[in-house]
Design goal:
The protein has 156 residues and is an all-alpha fold. The protein contains five helices and no strands.
Length: 156
């Protein structure tokens, strides 16, 4: 897994990254609901959380995080629908939220897929590097043997 935090909390953060994403999603949803006037405009903040989740924990958990963010927003809308009605027409607002949720899930899938592909390519690159190092060692060993044989041949 990629290193996220450079200090002693690194192990805790790596072990509990999923919990951190869920907590960040919950806290940000609550903060947007209670402190921000234009709630619809700040829903794009969740793209940052989902992109980070997709990059660090992969496609499956990023999509799960996107569903969780959508669920939390839906809960807050059920609690106070008038706070989310920016255009005055509930149908437009619900359509906007549906499109936002779809793109959030799409972003999670895309970044998670790209991250998993990057990890696979890095593993393949490390495997090939190991093979090259092994081949290099064999060539050096063979080179030493040939030098010794050349010295013996020149002496006789």
């Amino acid at each position: 897994m990629a290193k996220i935090f450079p200090d002693e909390s690194q192990n805790y953060a790596e072990k509990h990254w999923e919990d951190i994403v869920i907590l960040l999603t919950l806290l940000s949803t609550a903060a947007i609901h209670y402190f921000i006037y234009s709630k619809i405009a700040f829903l794009d903040f969740f793209y940052l959380v989902i992109v980070l989740a997709g990059y660090y924990v992969g496609k499956r958990l990023a999509i799960l995080g996107a569903f969780f963010a959508i669920l939390m927003v839906c809960v807050f809308i059920l609690v106070s629908e008038t706070a989310y009605l920016s255009t005055g027409n509930p149908m437009d607002t619900h359509l906007d939220l549906t499109v936002w949720g779809g793109f959030l899930i799409l972003a999670a899938w895309l970044v998670g897929t790209l991250s998993e592909k990057r990890k696979e390519e890095l593993e393949e690159s490390n495997r090939r590097l190991q093979e090259l190092e092994t081949s290099y060692q064999r060539v050096n060993e063979r080179n030493l043997v040939l030098k010794e044989e050349l010295k013996r041949a020149l002496k006789s």
